[in-house]
Amino acid sequence: MRRAILILAIATASGCREPRSRVTEAVTYDGAVSAILASRCKDCHEATPAPGGWRGGSYLQAIACVADGGPATRSSSGPAPLLRVLDDAIHAPLVTPEERATLADWVAAGAPKFVGTVHESSFVDPRSPQSHGRALRSKRWRPMLDAKDPEACGRCHEGVARPEKATLTATGAPACTTCHSEERGVLACGTCHVDRPNSFPPRDACFFPDDPINATAHAAHAGPTPSRVEGLACATCHVAPPPEVIGGAHGNGTVEVVFDAKLAGAAMWNPQSGTCMAACHARDGGAKPNPAWTDTRQLACGDCHGAPPPKHFAGACSGCHREADATGTALTSPRLHVNGIVDLGDGSGKCGACHGKGDDPWPSTGAHTKHRAPSAAASVACATCHAVPNEFGPGTSHPRGGAPTVALSGVAVTKGAPATFEAGACKNVYCHGGNLVGTTPATPVWADTTGAESTCGSCHGLPPGGPHIPAPQCALCHGSVAEDTAAGPRVIPAKGELHVNGRVNR
Which backbone phi and psi does 31 adopt, to 5 degrees? Predict the structure, then answer.
């Protein structure tokens, strides 16, 4: 009786393995092959990019496809690519005849990873009909998720639901996270949908050549593209999975298409034609309003909306949309693109969205910065030169597109100065001497940012002509505003708001 209990304990500790007498000897990747590949191939084929597109650092890398053909260990005619390359002049000297024969035996045996005991050797080969992924899918993943399932993977493996009494990992049974190393392990999106690091289809056509979703536009939607900095969330077109990932409409074997109304509007999916009719594409005169799901070509500006759309504001696209180039043929930083909102400027919804930055509405073009913070006067209000709108955005009169309208008012026309803005220059503006007695007004050019028009004497003489008295020092009469220095008179830095304010301050 004690002997029977001892035998049972040894069998349990061995982790579900069958007796060694039933194991047949075979060349495997875990055996001789991985050692050969590590010693003979690793130095060159671990580089980026790998020569021939092939690496041998893991089992899946070793049996993957090479750059100019199919799987490295399979061939429809003649030697497999892995063996064929070992016979060329460069690679033949790298392996011994015995090593070449070992690799040939491994390929002939189907390139197994290990000797089958509990599982067939093809259990870890994604191409095999007996692969563990296909086996688990056929059972709706119950052995992986339900610790009480009679075939629960957790009886031997860590990384999945484990029965309460399965406290030890079976000998030789790797943890599921050995391969499924993402944060969520076997429940990571990429486990079912695609090869790491992406979480969206298509899967690697090398391992899943018959996958019907290989030639679709998933990457164009979910992956970073020239039209977006980041991809769209899966929930844009599908029901978001539950916290446990598999359940409800997710993982039920049917592709559920349910659009997010914010981005797609009153969208429709036509499974017969394989086309989308969604606001993401069907906007204002686009050339391709209903793209086919199998069309994987990058859409151009003008395919979803006209460039410009009909009845759109005139002028360069970049005048209102900060992420577009002037001609509307490319995006520079598409953070705001395809987000369900017509974003003006940087999308902040403030004046600084289009001109300026954030809460600051001042543009940086021309002499704006000189007027924003003059060295000898108060900041000039926007309304001095422009009609300031009460509201802006789509459906309002602002923005209007084209060149900005200059309408001088306020301090610019103080004392009846007949101020105008013509040919890129201000004329007869009070700020620059317009209508001042004894002064010939300056005509500053808007594009001149040197500050030459901000010096004392540029707008009025030092002193102005008659009837002004020929005082040698400004501070004698205007000490509240000006001071005299060795370099000449200047406006006291702290008193700039008293200068060019429509009054003569003494």
Answer: -90, -105
